[in-house]
Write a structure and sequence with these properties.
Layout lengths: L9 H22 L6 H14 L3 E5 L2 H11 L7 E5 L4 H9 L3 E5 L10 H5 L6 E4 L11 H11 L2 E5 L7 E3 L5 E3 L6 E5 L13 E5 L2 H10 L4 E3 L2 E2 L10 H11 L2 H19 L21 E4 L2 H13 L29 H9 E4 L7 H14 L3
Parallel strand pairs: 2-3, 2-4, 4-5, 5-8
Antiparallel strand pairs: 1-9, 6-7, 8-9, 10-11, 12-13
The structure holds pyridoxal-5'-phosphate.
Pyridoxal-5'-phosphate (PLP) binds next to α3 and α4.
Length: 377
């Protein structure tokens, strides 16, 4: 193997764009505009253009983005927020942090995402918002979910940390990017995300002018003008160096998505005659951006497959081994409205293979060959 296989290879990605990145960082250093520098505004404008959304508010990380979004909606303690349990913990943690009540609903076994049906069954008089998570790079089926939210007057906060760049197709042919369809969209620029910074970062999206202004204030100590604080907020800013890096990387995002899709296609064809493996479902209503390439394997073989691959120098990961509702932080809280059978089943079966923008043919053929060999092919 020319280069060791990693889950995400940020080093080789950096080497390909090094001169542009280094120049962008050097510019911030020379100007010493570390906080709220011109790169932050420039990146926000570029991203708004890319996503076709009216407002992009950069902030410190994806978890803060979710928190600021929920703070801006004036939710009251005890209000119910419907969300999947099969997600990264940040989604549910922020709900609980704000003294709201996370109500976990089950996901679809094919898309791994919540659906209008699973959500509707959990709606009560106290339900105020839905937080769909576009898991592993694939959009939630948003059209029926948005119709449901409209019918029940619920806010929709999209957790788009894993699916930036994904197009959702409406029945009338209209396309929209994930994160721009709900009341508010949130994303993360954690380094391993599809649009990753070289440190922490996040952003919030909305088409609503008043909400945008409020969230901008909340992210900056509730400040309306310097030293005048109208709201209780927080300190959550994207720093200028990260914005400069992201502005460069945004120009490569579509290329990166294409590389991920190509890698996914190759995995799919390498595994299609292995009955033990279910390859990722591709929903017809969106374009999967493959933040993860996650297969399903029988639980009794999962650990031995992982160990076998690890011995060959092939890393794998389980996203997520423990669903949110089974995490200790939620021990004392009866947050489960209905059965989470699919969620629990998935946590036993999922296995994510290396997926990034730098996987080369040699590496992928090596991975495929060893997976095949494990299953006696
Ligand atoms: C990464 C992630 C977050 C949190 O983002 P941070 O920038 O790490 O705070 C939230 N939700 C999901 C689904 C994520 O994958």
């Amino acid at each position: 193997m020319s280069v060791p296989i990693q889950m995400v290879d940020l080093k080789r990605q950096y080497q390909h764009i090094k001169s542009e990145i280094d120049r962008a960082i050097a510019e911030v250093l020379e100007n010493c505009t570390f906080i709220q520098g011109p790169s932050v505004k420039a990146f926000a404008e570029d991203l708004a253009q890319y996503l076709q959304v009216k407002h992009v508010i950069p902030c410190a990380n994806g978890t803060d983005a979710l928190q600021i979004a929920m703070m801006a909606l004036d939710l009251q303690p005890g209000d119910e927020v419907i969300t999947p349990s099969f997600t990264y913990i940040a989604t549910a943690e922020v709900i609980a942090l704000l003294k709201l009540k996370p109500v976990f609903v089950d996901v679809d076994p094919k898309t791994f995402c919540i659906t209008a049906e699973t959500v509707e069954a959990a709606i009560t008089k106290r339900t105020k918002a839905i937080v769909p998570v576009h898991l592993f790079g694939q959009s939630v089926d948003m059209e029926p979910l948005l119709q449901l939210a409209h019918r029940y007057h619920l806010h929709v906060i999209e957790d788009n940390a894993q699916a930036i760049g994904c197009d959702y197709h409406f029945a009338d042919g209209k396309k929209m990017k994930t994160g721009t369809m709900g009341t508010i969209g949130c994303t993360s620029f954690f380094p391993s995300k599809n649009l990753g910074a070289y440190g922490d970062g996040g952003a919030i999206f909305t088409h609503d002018d008043a909400l945008a202004q409020k969230m901008q204030m909340i992210a900056n100590h509730g400040q309306s003008k310097r030293y005048y604080h109208d709201l209780v907020g927080c300190n959550s800013r994207l720093d200028s160096i990260q914005a400069a890096v992201l502005q460069v990387k945004l120009r490569y995002l579509d290329q990166y998505i294409a590389a991920r899709r190509q890698a996914a296609d190759l995995y799919d064809s390498g595994f299609n005659d292995i009955p033990e493996i279910t390859t990722p479902y591709r929903a017809p209503y969106c374009g999967h951006v493959f933040h993860q390439y996650t297969i399903l394997v029988p639980p009794k073989q999962r650990e031995s497959l992982q160990q076998y691959l690890f011995a060959q120098g092939i890393p794998t990961m389980i996203y997520y081994p423990v669903p949110c509702h089974q995490q200790k932080m939620f021990n004392s809280l009866p947050y489960v409205a209905h059965s989470l059978k699919t969620t629990e089943w998935l946590s036993q079966h999922v296995l994510s293979l290396p997926m990034h923008t730098e996987l080369d043919l040699e590496q992928q053929n090596f991975i495929i060959e060893h997976v095949r060999r494990f299953f006696g092919k």
